[in-house]
Amino acid sequence: MNKILTNILFITFILTANAVVGQQDNLPYGRFNTDSIMLGEEVKYTLRYEHSSDAEVLFPDSTYNFAPFELLDKTYFPTRTTNDVSVDCVEYTLAAYDIDSVYELGLPVWVYNQGEKDSVMAMLDGIFFKDLIKVMPDSLQLYANAEYVPLEEKFNYPYYLIFLGILVVIALVVLVGFGGKIKEYFRRKKLQKRYEQFLQNYSSHLNGDMTVNNVEESVVIWKSFMSSVVDVPIQAMTSKEAGQALHSKELEGQLKVLDRVIYAGQGEEEVKDILEGLKEWAEQGQEYAMAKPEGAFVFKK
Questions:
Q1: What sections of the protein cross the membrane (predicted)?
Q2: CA-based, 20 to 30 A from 239: which of 61, 177, 201, 216?
């Protein structure tokens, strides 16, 4: 009886292990190209997925939140199919700007098959932070040097201290009397410089061909700028969430049209006018940030 029970348990373990291995084999493969990076250093992350040839797959794009990393670039490779098994692959260029001992990342892949949508997640892959500053140990020994060398005093310390005190008083007077104005001046100057950089970058995309990549990059640039001036993180939001966050049904509709262009290739004839409208709304966001009002930002029609 004990032998039969042992055999049953052994067979159950083998079947369970095979099922788990089968599930893991069908997961996407996501790996970094190195084991350590420095702060702000670019790193490559490869995401590969094998699937049946009749299924359609979608990889994360620039609208996805790659935290703790930021997406710098992406490269798509052509689909390869052998014996009804297709392989899709994307290489992401990432960078991390927050200090941590280990960075981990696992990206999803969305699968569309026979009208059904499913998502599968790659296993987490880790990468170490490379610190260039060596931490000195606490056990360092200090050696005393008891040999004193007399120095001839030539510097007039009383006058130096008086001069230093006058400078401190002047600095305090300036900070108390004009500190707010000085701070506001540099704040507005920084906002204006960022707005000019946005206009230059956005206009260069607007004047180019309205390709899917160009439209996608234009939307990313616009969302990034608006997030900075109205203090609402719409970069990681869907079109519906962004419209609700900025209290504009019109904006929600315009962003959805751009989504159709990016993901379905439909509505190209409206793209130019919509992107021009986003540029005007960015100007409203800049005016809001420069004025620094108390209330939340609301688009003006």
A1: 157-180
A2: 201
Structural domains in the chain plus CATH codes: 28-129 (2.60.40.740), 188-291 (no CATH)
State how far the Cα of 157 lies from the Cα of 50, in Å rounded to an integer.
76
Report the sign of the C-alpha dihedral through residues 15, 21, 22, 24, in that order: positive
- Cβ atoms < 10 Å from Cβ of 272: 12
**Distance between first and last Cα of the chain:** 82
Q: Is the pLDDT of residue 101 over 70?
A: yes
Tell me the average pLDDT of the chain.
Answer: 82
Residue 130's φ and ψ, nearest 5 degrees, are -100, 110
Give the type of residue at 19: A
- Distance, CA of 110 to CA of 120 (rounded, Å): 7
The four Cα atoms 129, 134, 139, 143 give a dihedral, to 10 degrees, of -170
